[in-house]
Amino acid sequence: MKNNKLRTIAVTAAYSAGEELLKRYYQYARGDAKFKSQHEIVTKSDLISEKIIISEIKKHFPAHRILSEEAGKISGVSDYLWVVDPLDGTHNFSMHNSLWTVSIALFNKNKLILGIIFAPALNELFLAEADSGAWLNGKRIKVSGYKGEKVINTFCHGSKVSDIKKALKYYEYHKLHDLDCRQLGSASLELAYTACGRVESIVIPGANSWDVAAGVLLVQESGGKVTDFKNKAWNLKSPDMAASNGLVHKEILAAINKK
């Protein structure tokens, strides 16, 4: 990457935010959370992590645009757009479950070129670069080769009731017909797990771009497939997302689209 500096700053931002989050994680009291909606919470930790990441990006790339979960759109005049989830898995974080991440993606002229997912409590850094591959703590990763009876699927959902109902139908189908289906509580981590072969897929009705952008590139660069529920290539405006090792993609789309 010209990209060397872009990658370095993104990794620095992820580590800086993650280290601060980890300090707060061990001391966190669940009562401090505030509700954004019936199914969504935000904590001071989300906001502090976001401030660290945005500050790092703007310090080095003041013209770049940013889209972040809590701050929304931050304007700029560049073709570069950073898409940030400062704390993905806030519910997990709030109950001292270690499955939460910092997620940072970078687009250039609408092309996804960099994705970083850092899980501080697990000490795992996932990184992908367009047309270059994907890594976990510096080691190349690839999607699994499983299909059939050994498959483990995961799912997440947006906050709309329709998204939740669709996800529950999907969960019920796989729990009754396949080995297992899990909701880990962090969409970015489920994508990272798909990318490194720990699970075979993730589907998300009502996918938010900041939750999934970095993970989309991870799956693609590790040999997997990412689409919307109509089997069209995922983009920032896609209302839903399905990612897999490619071998089970037809099956997960059929399951999520069942009436």
From TrEMBL:
GO BP, one annotated term: inositol metabolic process
InterPro entries: Inositol_monoP_metal-BS (IPR020583), Inositol_monophosphatase-like (IPR000760), Inositol_monophosphatase_CS (IPR020550)
Keyword Metal-binding belongs to the record: yes
Annotated keywords: Hydrolase, Magnesium, Metal-binding
Cofactor: Mg(2+)
GO MF annotations in UniProt: inositol monophosphate 1-phosphatase activity; metal ion binding
Pfam families, per database record: Inositol_P (PF00459)
Binding site for Mg(2+): E69, D85, L87, D88, D211
Protein name: Inositol-phosphate phosphatase
Native source species: Candidatus Falkowbacteria bacterium CG1_02_41_21
